[in-house]
Amino acid sequence: MCRVTKTCLVVDDSKVIRKVARHILEGLAFTVREAADGREALDACLAEVPDVVLLDWNMPVMSGMDFLRALRDSDLPTRPKVVFCTTENGMAYIRAAIEAGADEYVMKPFDRETLESKLQLVGMH
Amino acid sequence: MIAPVPADTTSAGARNVIAALLERHTGQQIGAGRAWRIDSALKPLLRAHGLDTLDQLAAGLLRDGDAALKAEVVDALLNQESSFFRDFGVIEQIGIAASQMQAAHPSRRLRLWSAGCSTGQEPLSIAMLLDEMHRDAPAPDICATDVSASAIQRARSGRFSQFEVQRGLAIQRMIRWFEPAGDDWVARPELLARVQFRRHNLVVDPALPGRFDIILCRNVLFYFSPPVRRQVFATLAGALRPGGVIVLGASETVIGQTDLLEPSTAYRGFYQARADTPLRASAHG
């Protein structure tokens, strides 16, 4: 039987975080792609729309918030779910992210259970 | 050179003393297959009391009958694993059942009992859900109990770590019902006010006063011996309002455990009192 795996684009300027997230996500049967900033992530989405984007906030070149606004303004064929994953844990940041079109929000540090739970909440697991 | 693995120096006798203490105080059993849990759960307590081994702890428990130490040991052994909206499908179904019960009795205040609520995530989840679903209905009366005094104390505080608050709780709900407090998040007073938390031992304490439309007792009963389980089922069955249901954990059933309950005819996966089960008289209805 052929099972179609979901794809997750991990966007974080930290190689370590990308590696940890990849490890968890592959354990949850996701196909993982990586981008180191918002610009790279936007290019990756234009090339192939992922099912879900795990998105850091503070990154060089293009921030997570600028990426999210550009993503939601784009006319991609599908609407990927976006889960912010950031150390910006204040209420104002969370509200701003939701306002800009984020579907869920993970406050770093995170663990496997947290990520799995958030992916379930956006219908991706 | 690889160091030899240290031998297990804890005697079976020490574990037996500790397991017997737990059973005496809570009715919960730790079978031989889960004896490892005694060692892992009590490690922090041993450190805190400057003890090296479980044998020393067991000797202390037998020697001086220190009630505070006994309570501390019992508390440490209780499984307080919980998360918000755990088994989301079940919580959703509880919301649907509550809606239908409320529609059948529009002016009545629904009563729910979360038995074995641990640190409070289950009743708080129900409170959030019912508020969102039934803005115009009378606020339900939600009672939540646990045998662990420390779990109830934590539940009453409504304070959860960042890890705890993120597990199962959608971000929209989190910012609506919780506020940051240092590194933690605390339930807003209007949420905490919807749940009455109290310490209660399902095995030795009488049932809560009144009767209930929905009783949740999830992942609690499998810790009990069959006779104790039967006794607790009788307590819960007698506390149901007519038409009320009991919700058990996914791997729990009443089949072969009690004659007082049967699968609900109205709500798949839930249980109802058999027609011939005597209902406890109640001033609360």
List keywords for this structure.
heterodimer; A: 125 residues; alpha/beta; Rossmann fold; 5-stranded parallel beta sheet; 5 helices; 5 strands; B: 285 residues; Chemotaxis Receptor Methyltransferase Cher, domain 1; 2 domains; 3-stranded antiparallel beta sheet; 41% helix; disordered N terminus; Response regulator (chain A); ST_Response_Regulator (chain A); phosphoprotein (chain A)
Q: How would you summarize this macromolecular structure in one to three sentences?
A:
The complex is a heterodimer of chains A (125) and B (285). Chain A is 42% helix and 19% strand. By secondary structure, chain A is of the alpha/beta class.
Textual characterization of the structure:
The complex is a heterodimer of chains A (125) and B (285). With 125 residues, chain A is an alpha/beta fold. Chain A contains 5 helices and 5 strands. The longest helix of chain A has 13 residues, at 15-27. Chain B is an alpha/beta fold. Chain B is 41% helix and 16% strand. Chain B has helices at residues 12-26, 36-48, 54-64, 67-77, 88-104, 121-133, 149-157, 162-166, 171-177, 189-192, 226-238, and strands at residues 111-115, 141-146, 159-160, 178-181, 184-187, 195-199, 212-217, 240-248, 261-263, 271-273. In chain B, the strands form 3 sheets. In chain B, strands 6-2-1-7-8 form a 5-stranded parallel β-sheet, with helices on both faces. In chain B, a hairpin with a 7-residue loop joins strand 9 (261-263) and strand 10 (271-273). The radius of gyration of chain B is 21 Å and the shape is globular. Mean pLDDT of chain B is 89; it is low at 1-7. Chain A: Residues 7-123 form the Response regulatory domain. Chain A: It comes from Sphingomonas baiyangensis. Chain A: The modification 4-aspartylphosphate is found at residue 56. Chain A: InterPro entries: CheY-like_superfamily (IPR011006), Sig_transdc_resp-reg_receiver (IPR001789), ST_Response_Regulator (IPR052048).
